[in-house]
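Q: Structure for this?
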Amino acid sequence: MSTVSFLKNIRAALISIAGSLAAICIGLLLVAIFLVAVGRNPVETYIGIFTSAFGGSFAITETFVAATPIMLTALAVAIAGWVGLLNVGAEGQLYLGAIGATMIAITIPNAPSWQMIPAMFVVACLFGAVWSGVPAILRAKFGVNETIVTLLLNYVALLLVEFLIHGPWQDPSSSSWPQTMAFSDAAQLPHLFASRVHPGLFIGIVMAVFFAFLIPMTKPGFIIRVIGGNPKAAAYAHLPVVKYIIISMLVSGAIAAIAGFGQVSAIEGRLRSGISPGYGYTGFLVCWLARHNPLAIIIVSIFVGGLLSGADSLQLSTKLPFATVNIMQGTIFLTLLMFENIIQRFSSATVEAKTPEANI
Amino acid sequence: MNKFIFLAAAFIAWGLQLFYPTVSLAVEQKSQPLKIGFLYVGPIADNGWNYAQELGRQYVEKSLGNKVETIFAENIGENAEAERVMEKMIAQGAKLIFATSFGYLEPVERVAKRHPDIIFMQLSRTTDIKNIGNYFYWQYEPFYLSGIVAGRMTKSNKIGFVASHPIPPIVQSINAFALGAQSVNPKAKVKVVWTNTWVDPPIEVEAAKGLIDTGIDVLAFDQSDSQSIVKTAEDNNVYIIGCYSDVHQFAPKRWLTGACCNWGLFYAKVAQAVINHNWKPGVTHCSLKNDYVKLASFGPAVSPTIKKEIAVAKNKIANETVSIFHGPLKDREGKMRLAKDQKPDLKWLAEMNWFVPGVEGSLSKGNK
């Protein structure tokens, strides 16, 4: 509980970022071989992607827009990870957040925004927490594997959205297209300047910094680390393991739900299918790349957001098919994960809680 | 020191150019070709909807030569992702954007409001925004003709239809298909199964097999991809009616014909209008009359008599001597939908959410 441990935390974040950068370079080299094989100049291609992701104000803000739900879902995965749980259900919790926010937006469409936005926020978080609460209780009380339950609930969440937008919530004026009616202006989150960046980004950053302090420097953080390190020892030491597991999962689901709230309220302005092209799964990946370190999650999610948004240039400028985007992202993620172990050896600092490998 | 100043100046210039791409563009705009962006909802290798769009883009490039330059992006979701990609197309200099799927309207509207100088073409939806043109494709016309073929070919009088989203353009196609079949075979029934997705081969094959199990002997569909369903029909000895692209090669024995798109002619015409500065917003009807939709080639099973019959029917529709939807027309619940002497207009067509008699399968909110 000192600034020393916080600095250690930053050091761990820097090591994991530096290691990731090295891995990314190797991944890019591998992709370059592929690019040469299909007759493209890899340097030009990469400059194109970088410009498309970070060159100019529009590109940067779009990178942040993609990074926002990734950051929030990655944090959600990390929070569950600190107590030793694998939350693969951030995608489903995101959708539940979207459902919760939409429910408020379409049931009280005339409410002023100072009532509307907080109500949407709270209900979104509640819905997300319910979705992660089910596996949490099953895990804490009955020892049911939370990985399977959270994963399967993703599909239930998606079908629930499909049911709502094809059925009770379908906009009668949208020519039978499956979507809800547009939210009123009061139900739409404000944007930063003329961009699509919305407060979700700042919520994500503030949360990450908050947890970067909480986990290494406070008593609850200490308990979380003990539970995550060895739940049996924690129970033996009469620590409230069940309570912490459940609370962590509830918070985890609520944070993932904020991502869904942001997507419907600030980005789409209504609920429709495809509000998340797998952000929850990308968040899971980002969390592991950042090795559950909240500060590293900020950086890695912005990088991955840039990769997603910048990949447009592969199609638009380099004129490569969409499949190339998958090849590039897959290769980079793969090298990152392979380098995970190598990076671990260089980093002695394990300030952040253990990753939940013990439970797999 | 001089070197340093030069580098700094170059760096600042580079930075300015990034943030103000219009500065350098404005100067040479006049002599540049028209840059056209195409937004595809699925992969162009789908042998169906998006492949037909891609052929359209290639036709535009071929027919207008150096007057145009085209860019495209495939697999772009009908969500905020489309907004980002369109913005990037515009940043690259695109002045005309074809949004080639139903669900793009909402993102297109948002981008169009921010860029009143860019022209957008939105499929199958109408809007009040002045820089968005709308085009409707009356796929139901070739579907009516395909229905005649299906009605002639079926022995069991049961025809299957694997349908994507229950939206008016698709409902029109199914109704016209059924009317076509019934015009030559009053006992013909069309069984519809919805997939609620544009493309998902496993679900489509599942739906097709489910229909085949109910005893259908002709299968039609409107999914964006063709290969999986067409091959399933060929493997199960069921006749197949294609959609969007002519893919008779996947069913050399069982292919009958198909309702296809012919986007190239239309897109080239729009591009030429934009180049000539005489483009106007409004609704274009892509129909048999202007050849923007067409019938696919016939398979070996279709007899010369049927082909002749189709040629006659096609001429009547293209010359507008008959209307496929003509009063009195009742839906399958018996409600009068089109009175005698009433002509179907755009609004009537764009709101079609009911089935004609002889179509089986759900069509209601939340159907599955």
